[in-house]
Amino acid sequence: MLHGCDALVHTAALHLLNGKGQPMAEFIRVNVQLTAALLDRAVAAGIRRFALCSSMTVQVGIDLTAGGMAVLDEDMPCRPDHAYSLSKVMVEELARTVARRHRVSTASLRFMGFGHDCTEAGTQLIARVLSARDAGRACLLAVERDGLRGEAFNVGSGTPLSNRDIADAQKDPEAVLERLFPGCAPVLLALAVEARTTDFWPACSNAKSKALLGYEPQDTFAAWLSSHGWRPATP
Fold it and tell me: Which residues 6+ apart lie within 8 Å of 22 measured at CB?
């Protein structure tokens, strides 16, 4: 099956939903050991470019609080707090090791939460939710690049938030949205959508994935607002 392929995108994993109640050893077996076996076979088959799906839980934990209320970048430390997030940290190290050993291009993509219906995600698109379509775009961009040596990339929905915005939103989330997206308040009111403090974190910077992969999310909060009649202010 692998012979004749140019690239491999590996998305399969034991995760928080299908792995509920599983012991740590099972997460390590499925997510790390089986991924290592797949990479061995893929390299032997001549595949030279790989994208491995990681998760922002390596930095924010499964309760989304380990990274704190800040816009996270790849230089900030990993803080796994569960067998799942630990297994993803190990897979990222596996990607770096395979790249060094075999001189192949590998990337680990740390996705924000995705799989949601982005037509209904609303204010969650401001930071913590990513569309499946944008996740797929990031995967394709990663395997189009040569020379990645196990790079980890945070992949989110293109949040405009600063650390100050996140802090201010804990007191008045509507005011922060209106500051960033002038005129959005009537749209949200008409849709009966209420901004929640938890919509504003965790948040990640896409700066590295944009610079090295050319990643630009399309299913953003601004795009969602626009689909409901909002228009950005013009100078």
Answer: 14, 83
Task: CATH number of the domain at 104, please.
Answer: 3.40.50.720
CA neighbor of 69 nearest in space, from 78, 77, 60: 60
| Structural domain count of the chain | 1
Three-class DSSP category at 23: coil
Express each pLDDT in 188-213 by its tens digit: 999 999 999 999 989 999 999 999 99
Token pair of 126, please? 């401001």
Residue pair 10/53 in contact (Cβ under 8 Å)? The answer is yes
> What are phi and psi for residue 220, nearest 5 degrees?
-100, 170
Q: Per-residue pLDDT for 45 more than 80? A: yes
Residue 70 falls within a domain, yes or no? yes
Provide the greatest CA pair distance for the chain.
58
pLDDT in tens, 78-114: 999 999 999 999 999 999 999 999 999 999 999 998 8
d(CA 16, CA 55): 11
Contact 170, 96 (CB under 8 A): no
pTM for this predicted structure = 0.93
Letter string b/e over residues 14-31, b meaning 16 or more CB atoms within 10 A of that residue's CB: bbbeebeeeeeeebbebb
